[in-house]
Design goal:
The chain is α/β, with parallel strands linked by helices. It is built from ten helices and five strands; from the N terminus they run βαβαβαβαβαααααα.
């Protein structure tokens, strides 16, 4: 299994150096690139081919970390982005998740929490600190699930139980492409960016 390819985007070189040294000491992680701004990240991201990008929110230049995340997810949908910020107000957290970030880690967290988030993100799993997760559940306002069809509701429930597309397809006796279509429709109707947000929504609204 190849090491997790991580890139760092932060305008403070001391932060990048500290994170780079910390991750370099982990046997399952390799640093593939660094950037000091959103523009620089967008310029280099395709060559990095990172599995996970750790992104600051506030950076100099024309675009912040949230907008950079939004653009990167359009360009490289398979790359997972973790927002690492000293600012964790609800608007920024929700904005980052809606832009496509898989999770949000505060800069005053323990290094082990960020490491756990990176390893989880590489597997497509969002790992939140419990207090932050509770705030997200309280602050997040989603569109009504009334627009979901009966089958989309079934897919949402199974998605929230942690099943993959292939497992959902087997459970419902449909093709995997059909499940992908349902998941895309669910995300669009509920105004969500990815499966993790759909799972949070399902838990919040009693689907599981």
């Amino acid at each position: 299994m190849h090491p997790i390819r991580v890139a760092l985007v932060d305008d403070h070189s001391i932060v990048r150096r500290g994170l780079s040294a910390y991750f370099a000491a982990q046997p399952d992680i390799t640093i593939v690139g660094e950037a000091a701004s959103g523009e620089e990240a967008l310029h280099h991201a395709a060559t990095w081919q990172a599995d996970v990008i750790v992104m600051d929110v506030l950076m100099p230049g024309g675009i912040d970390g949230i907008e950079t995340t939004r653009r990167l997810k359009r360009l490289l949908p398979q790359t997972q982005i973790i927002i690492l910020s000293g600012y964790a107000d609800d608007a920024r957290v929700i904005g980052a998740l809606r832009a496509g970030a898989i999770t949000y880690v505060e800069k005053d967290s323990q290094p082990e929490q960020l490491l756990e988030a990176v390893r989880g993100a590489a597997q497509g799993k969002a790992i939140f600190e419990p207090a932050l997760m509770q705030r997200i559940l309280q602050a997040q306002t989603m569109r009504s699930s009334d627009a979901l069809t009966e089958r989309e509701g079934e897919v949402l429930k199974l998605l929230a139980e942690g099943l993959t597309n292939a497992e959902i397809a087997a459970r419902l006796s449909v093709g995997e492409e059909t499940v992908k279509t349902h998941v895309a429709s669910i995300l669009r109707k509920l105004g969500l960016a990815h499966r993790t947000q759909a799972a949070i929504y399902a838990l919040r609204h009693g689907w599981v």
